[in-house]
Amino acid sequence: MNRLKPIETAYRGYRFRSRLEARWAVAFDDYPFFRWEYEPQGFDLDGTPYLPDFRIWWDSDTYSWLEVKPDGYEPTSKEHEIYQAMANGTQGGLYLLRGINPGYRLYRPNDQAVIDRRESFVEPHSLHAGRSARFEHGENGAPLGGRR
Predict the structure, then answer these.
(1) What is the CA radius of gyration of the chain?
(2) What is the mean pLDDT of each run of 10 residues along the chain (148 residues)?
(3) Is the CB of residue 53 less than 8 Å from the CB of residue 66?
(4) Contact criterion met (CB below 8 Å) for 19 and 6
(5) N or C: which terminus of the chain has fewer CB atoms within 10 Å of its end residue's CB?
(6) Helices 19-30 and 124-132 meet at what angle, rounded to 10?
């Protein structure tokens, strides 16, 4: 069976593992309330390697981890344990974003209840910027009708 492989995508000097991750970076650039880093650091969680997709800094001291997955993704029990372990190591938790859509799952620190939200992680205009970003044929990620 053939496994579909995401297309690596360059944006702002980063080589993202997928267009979906690059589109989220465009949305984050359009959202002025935090700064982001792509795959800044990997971790060994009891023998299981883990590399989160993004670290979002809310201010100089508080950050959250973000994991980006395709639409319809549901974590396995092992992935759920990994996400919760990462959340426990931060003040801001770990956000699971599926597709480039409103809604997210928040793994909160200290093993608090996991929360599923319907609202967007970023403002609607930023989500639109990410959705409409184009990378085909050497384009640089500019949203349709915009320049980057």
Answers:
(1) 15
(2) 77 92 94 93 90 93 93 93 90 92 91 88 90 77 54
(3) yes
(4) yes
(5) N
(6) 140
What distances in angstroms separate CA 126 from CA 15, 25, 70, 89, 123, one per listed residue?
21, 10, 18, 28, 5
The answer to whether 2 and 109 have CB atoms below 8 angstroms apart is no
**Amino acid (1-letter code) at residue 141:** G
pTM of the predicted structure, to 2 decimals:
0.87
Hey, what amino acid is at 84?
A: Q
Question: With respect to CATH, is domain 15-133 assigned 3.40.1350?
Answer: yes
